[in-house]
Amino acid sequence: MEIKADILAIGAHPDDVELSAAGTLMREISKGKIVVLLDLTEGELGTRGTVADRYAEAAAASAIMGIHDRVNLKLKDGFFQHNEETLRSIISVIRHYRPEVVLANAVSDRHPDHGRAAELVRQACFYSGLPKIQTSYIGVNQTTWRPRTVYHYIQENYLKPDILIDISDFAERKIEAIKAYGSQFYKPGSTEPPTLISSEFYFDFLKGRWGDYGKYIGVKYAEGFMLTRPTGVDSITDLF
């Protein structure tokens, strides 16, 4: 069955979207929006766990969030290139799902893949609207589609958000979705190498970040997003 998405959330790695935008996505799903996730890589360079783990964890997280579809481009983790082939592969997914809004990686971050993916996705969204760029998806020739806007979620590095979304009602379920990636996080007695996110206190950091964003709009928890161009709202009274 073909899906027309309201939101296409794209991450360089499985878990990027869950860590940074799951609350916003679940909020939109609760309003009846159709949400699709695209992972660019299989996360094969992750220090902990395996590719098989990543697929199982991504499926579990998607079920918790209520995601309508999820695909993986299987680009090379750490080594995917900013080139025509990669852009075309992303364009084909955008044209297939025809989203109104695209969420993409942070514009800059500790992990080099994140900023590179952010720029790739931003460009792919523009090129997807050009009729002389021809693509196909599963053997079907495609027509043009350009999303209305691209928002970049914020990841490890602290960046000043342009937009804040109240996720207070979805914070605990967001924690569940993130913890679906069990191979990545703290396990007492684990013999796997420690990483930044496997710290016993990592979830305290996450909730602190959400709380910090929330205080600016008078709510308990919020997620932040950045823009690369101005955006508009229907009414100034929608802002708070």
Question: What are the salient characteristics of this protein?
Answer:
240 residues; 35% helix; alpha/beta; two-stranded antiparallel sheet; 9 strands; 7-stranded mixed β-sheet; single chain
Summary, kept brief:
The chain is an alpha/beta fold and 240 residues long.
Helix and strand arrangement:
Blueprint: E1 7-11, H1 16-30, E2 35-41, H2 51-65, E3 69-75, H3 84-97, E4 101-104, H4 112-127, E5 136-137, E6 140-141, E7 149-153, E8 163-166, H5 171-179, H6 202-215, E9 222-226
Parallel strand pairs: 1-2, 1-4, 2-3, 4-7
Antiparallel strand pairs: 5-6, 7-9, 8-9
Helix pairs in contact: 1-5, 2-5, 3-4
Helix proportion: 25-40%
Cα-atom radius of gyration = 17 Å
Uncertain residue ranges: none
- Walk across the major sheet and give the strand order: 3-2-1-4-7-9-8
Average the pLDDT over all residues and give the rounded result.
Answer: 96
Largest sheet: 7 strands, mixed
The ordered H/E elements are: EHEHEHEHEEEEHHE
Span between termini: 39 Å
Kindly estimate the percentage of residues that lie in beta strands according to DSSP.
15-25%
- Tell the overall outline: globular
Structural class: alpha/beta
**Total of DSSP H or I helical runs spanning 4+ residues:** 6
How many strands appear in the DSSP assignment?
A: 9
Descriptive account of the structure:
- The strands form 2 sheets. A 7-stranded mixed sheet has the order 3-2-1-4-7-9-8, with helices on both faces. A two-stranded antiparallel sheet has the order 5-6.
- Strand 5 and strand 6 form a beta hairpin.
- 39% of the residues are buried.
- Helix 1 packs across helix 5 and helix 3 packs across helix 4.
- The chain is of the alpha/beta class and 240 residues long.
- The mean pLDDT is 96.
